[in-house]
Amino acid sequence: MTPSPQQRPTLTPLLLAVLALLSAFTPLSIDMYLPALPVIAVDLKGTAGDIQLTLSAFIIAFGAGQIFYGPAGDRFGRRPVILRAYGTAATLHRGETGWEELNALFPPDPGARQIFDVAVDLVQTSCGYAVPLMDFVAGRDTLGRRAAQRGEAGMPAYWREKNAVTIDGFPTGLPA
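Now predict its structure.
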């Protein structure tokens, strides 16, 4: 569930500094630790293998730490993103060549009248700062209920009456 704007924490300078230090901790520690391994082995009178086990323990502990500061970084630092896909689309209507093959990829729906087969040429992202925060509550079942009431045989007549043209008056291409 997405927190409301009143509940969502703000990224303060202190929080930003803490998250930056958490991100820098591992590379800095390994860069300081690896060159010191031979000295540590001599000082602690251990073998190189024994001292290398401490490095394994450090990496395992770092991985376990991801469980905690990974979600913290997501909650406070991740920006919203909009995914844009550019390409060309072909409209397939019920009964046309290729309909059965593509329709099999979706759950059964007696109200399905067309499928857009999209060839994506380019995918880009942009910030989603203007997108309002919303929560998904539930899917609507109105289309499925209406299609079930009309049945497979009643849907084509409904489409001819209601879906032959767009709201702008352009033909939809649905078969007559």
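The first helix runs from residue 13 to 43.
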